[in-house]
Amino acid sequence: EVQLVESGGGLVQPGGSLRLSCVASGLSIEHSTMWWYRQAPGEGREWVSLIMTQDVTNYNDAVEGRFTISRDIPRNTVYLQMNNMKPEYTAVYHCNHQHSWGQGTQVTVSS
Fold first, then answer.
1. What percent of the chain is modeled with pLDDT above 70?
2. Which residues have a Cβ under 8 Å from the Cβ of 111 and sit 6 or more positions away?
């Protein structure tokens, strides 16, 4: 059974930074495409970033240049470094692999 556990969310001021973590079990991230999604209040789920084998990455245009996705294969953990954050980034951020989702971690950007 695949389990994904996110952490690292919190309250941050505009322009600040956070790093989210997603610890995976039941799969090897080395051989898996891993995604970050987010869901803002009253909105649908939106993809944010993905990382594939050989560390190929892709980003939603809304976060390009501000977010960096990476992974630590020995720790089986995927990260999302978020810099220069905006209030519109406020959402619950979820880790995803195929049909498996984490419970999410709340990110709030506010002064």
1. 100
2. 13, 14
